[in-house]
Amino acid sequence: MVFDPSSLAYVDDGAPVAVRASTILPAVRENVELRTADGLTLVGELAMPSDGVVRATLITFHPLPTHGGFMDSHVYKKASYRLPALAGIAVLRFNTRGTVSPRGTSEGSFEEGVGERLDVEAAVEFAVDRGLPNRWLLGWSFGTELVLKYGAVPPVAAEIEGAVLLSPPLHRAGDADLEAWAAYGKPLTVLVPELDDYLQPEAATARFARIPQARLVPVAGAKHLWVGEKYAARALNEIAAAVLGVPVELPAEWRGPVASLPVQLPG
């Protein structure tokens, strides 16, 4: 059964609530569909601040779908649950071609990051058509490869303000892609876990030295998948700070309505 965000029920008992992994704060949530240039329909969700004031927009690209990555990968779920209310940030999540989640299945099949170029373009086009302001790409693991390969070149390059990377493995994106970002000149924030399985801070510093404007943030104790509330919260703080241009420490408590899920989504 496809999850319908309109089925969320918000309650408020007047007491402050700790923001935990499953805490869902108020937002305008909409199931959306993206159309690619090669005719595929990709399923996703757009979460907007309830007051309609959007300070920035995140266009997210999930980890490797052949290894369990999808639009509900936990950092992205938490971004959708928290950032519209706590930071005024709109969050667009979607499944790249062939990827399955509780939201549904995107058409097509996994294409090793090649055909996914059209998925990147479709997501950015959707955000532009919706009039979403201050658009930033956010990639995690495989998603960073898509951002690095296609974010700094037309038609995407003209429509975004910069990008944030979580745990870049630099498997599919090579030096030529890094040099394209260097020439592009727009901001790039790179969050690198100390204990990453693929690219740790020392090696990442050397690789990303090709991009003068890249800001590399080593995160002590973190692993590739950002498991644990401590690390997910740190990632969200760094993401919000990058796109808003100011230091951010998201509140650990919320006073107001909180949603309860009608079903338990896999995390």
What labels would you give this structure?
single chain; 267 residues; alpha/beta; Rossmann fold; eight-stranded mixed sheet; two-stranded antiparallel ribbon; 6 helices; 26% helix; 24% strand; globular; disordered C terminus
- The separation of the N and C termini measures 16 Å
- State the helicity in percent bands: 25-40%
Largest sheet: 8 strands, mixed
Strand content: 15-25%
Low-confidence blocks of residues: 263-267
Number of helices: 6
**Average pLDDT, to the nearest integer?**
94
Oligomeric description of these chains: single chain
Radius of gyration: 17 Å
Can you name the CATH architecture?
A: 3-Layer(aba) Sandwich
User: CATH class, please?
Assistant: Alpha Beta
SSE ordering: EEEEEHEEEHEHEHEHEHEE
Query: How are strands sequenced across the largest beta sheet?
Result: 3-4-6-5-9-10-11-12
| Count of structural domains | 1
Beta-strand segment tally: 14
Bulk shape:
globular
